[in-house]
Design a protein that fits this description.
The protein is of the alpha/beta class and 555 residues long. Among the domains are: 2-86; 152-317, no CATH class. The chain has 18 helices and 19 strands. The strands form three sheets. The protein has a 14-stranded parallel beta sheet with strand order 2-1-3-4-5-6-7-10-13-15-16-17-18-19. β15, α15 and β16 form a beta-alpha-beta unit. α4 packs antiparallel against α5, α16 runs parallel beside α17 and α17 packs parallel to α18 (529-538). It is elongated, with a radius of gyration of 41 Å. This is F-box domain-containing protein.
Length: 555
């Protein structure tokens, strides 16, 4: 617009200049006054135009300034509204379950700081990270309580602190240990924590009942009974445990977890058979105990010779860990699977997870079995740990578990000189365990964890999984999770990795099987990395586990 005004003004001045030339005949040639006046008029016009421009710019700037002020005011108003809304609404946080796992992982992985050797510093801080966080005055009380729930706490009559290291797998490297005889009123919150365990050592004999009587009115969540008494048989511990059950059966029946820890010299001493005899003699007494209370105990870890004693409170057990009882035939340790499983059928209606541990090398019972498989209709997880292969076969062929979905087998190699007794009267076999053998017994397995330690057996097992059988049917069609363990990597294991990649690819291509979605194998490196890349590509939850994290030398 202003450019047009300038052009119009210049046109007018040019026209005036033309008229001047037409009148030159009557005007003086050297008259410059009029020329200068025209220049003055032109300058005035330009000044007027510039003034108009400045006024327009001023008004525009003022308008923009007012708009900016209004926008700033609106911004602060919205921020204040957001702050008010956030002040009344809790901020989104991580779920408590995730936070609990974070703090728990920190507890188990944290190491107590060590002072420099040769230097004594009374002010050196040996607290762990979580301990320092709890002791920090700026940590909110709610957070302190939440963190304390993740730190295992043991309330115990146990006096020998040097032996406390035996419990490290259960309580971790630095639990909070409180003497049972020195608990103050301000420790009331400790009793109700799910991480608190009452540790009862039987070294005092029946005197331990007096300690427990003092805390009868306290909440009991978890109880661990330890047997550090050195005896030639389990009769002493059995007598004390019986007294505890008679006096505190109602407390034990309402625990979250009950565990019994035995020292090696007291374990597997024939106590199972003694306890069975005692149970048959005192059957009426046991029934009387069971009628005194309603049990809700979900988890228990008990040696097999104590199962007959504690069976009144195992009526609702869902997770049980026990040992495979051992007898001696001509000095040879022999596993008695039959009687154990027969006893476990008393709680088979609620038992969902079962772990059977064989504490020493032994052979299956030489007694013939009537092959009527015992029903475990609710069993979903089975873990047979540290057992010889023939014992595993003896167990698997003795139970009927149609709901079983998770199977873990930790098979111990037969030591040189071990004598194998085979007494199956129905044509049992000592052939190695194979995928086809397991499929015929438990075809609906979804997760399997194995460690044979035999290269040829491992290869055959994977080969059975990689392709359908002769009838065109797949082994374990619902299988989608596997785990293999090892401690030592050997180049001889590379073919196993290749076979495993074949299993994953073939089952992913088939519509008749589930794809493998979760796989854990030992950590590999080097020339077999191509197979590792294949596994990472086809398995969503692929995990390579460091070798040193395991104790057995399997796959």
């Amino acid at each position: 617009m202003f450019e047009e005004m300038r052009n119009e003004m210049d046109n007018v001045l040019k026209s005036s200049q033309i008229d001047r030339h037409e009148l030159e005949v009557v005007a003086f040639d050297n008259d410059s006054i009029k020329e200068q006046r025209r220049d003055v008029d032109r300058s005035c016009m330009l000044l007027h135009i510039n003034s108009m421009q400045l006024e327009i710019f001023r008004r525009a700037a003022q308008t923009k300034q007012e708009e900016s002020s209004a926008l700033a005011a609106e911004k602060y108003r919205l921020i204040a509204r957001i702050d008010d809304q956030q002040g009344s609404t809790p901020l989104s946080t991580l779920p408590n379950e995730v936070l609990a796992q974070i703090f728990s992982h920190l507890y188990w992985s944290d190491a107590i700081p060590a002072a420099q050797p040769g230097l004594f510093d009374p002010f050196f801080d040996r607290r762990t990270t979580l301990q320092r966080l709890v002791d920090d005055g700026d940590t909110p009380v709610e957070w302190k309580g939440f963190i304390n729930q993740q730190i295992p706490c043991a309330i115990t009559n146990f006096g020998n602190i040097r032996r406390w290291g035996l419990f490290e797998p259960r309580f971790g490297p630095h639990p909070r240990v409180l003497p049972m005889s020195d608990l103050h009123e301000n420790s009331e919150d400790v009793w109700s924590r799910p991480s608190t365990t009452i540790v009862i050592d039987l070294f005092e004999g029946l005197g331990v009942v007096e300690h427990l009587e003092k805390i009868r009115l306290k909440p009991w969540r978890n109880v661990l009974i330890s047997e550090f008494v050195s005896t030639k048989s389990s009769s002493v511990a059995l007598k004390i445990a019986k007294s505890i059950l008679q006096n505190f059966g109602n407390k034990l029946a309402n625990l979250d977890s009950l565990e019994f820890y035995e020292t090696p010299q007291n374990a597997f001493g024939g106590g199972f058979f003694e306890a069975q005899a005692s149970l048959s003699i005192e059957n009426n007494e046991s029934d009387g105990l069971a009628s005194q209370f309603t049990s809700r105990l979900p988890h228990a870890s008990l040696p097999s010779h104590l199962l007959p004693l504690f069976h009144p409170i195992l009526s609702t057990i869902s997770d049980l860990e026990t040992t495979i009882p051992t007898d001696y035939v001509f000095g040879i340790p022999t596993s008695n699977v039959d009687d154990l499983l027969l006893l476990l059928t008393l709680c088979s209606s609620t038992l969902q997870s079962m772990t059977l541990i064989n504490g020493q090398s032994s052979t299956p019972s030489s007694r013939s079995r009537v092959r009527q498989r015992l029903p475990f209709s609710q069993l979903k997880k089975l873990n047979i740990d540290s057992s010889a292969e023939n014992i595993v076969v003896d167990i698997l062929t003795a139970i009927d578990c149609p709901s079983l979905r998770h199977l873990t087998l930790n098979i111990s190699p037969i030591a040189p000189g071990d004598i194998i007794l085979s007494g199956d009267s129905d044509g049992g076999t000592n052939d190695p365990i194979s995928a086809i053998f397991l499929h015929n017994i438990i075809p609906d397995i979804e997760h399997i964890s194995l460690g044979f330690g035999n290269l040829e057996q491992d290869e055959q097992f994977l080969s059975d999984l990689a392709n359908p059988n002769e009838s065109g049917k797949w082994v374990f069609p619902s299988l989608d999770s596997m785990k293999f363990e090892s401690t030592v990597f050997s180049p001889a294991q590379i073919p196993l990795l290749k076979a495993l990649a074949k299993v994953v690819i073939n089952r992913a291509r088939s519509d008749a099987t589930k794809a493998i979605r979760c796989l854990s194998v030992p950590e590999f490196s080097g020339e077999e990395s191509a197979y590792c890349d294949t596994l990472r590509l086809f398995v969503p939850e692929m995990q390579f586990i460091a070798d040193q994290s395991y104790e057995q030398s399997d796959w």
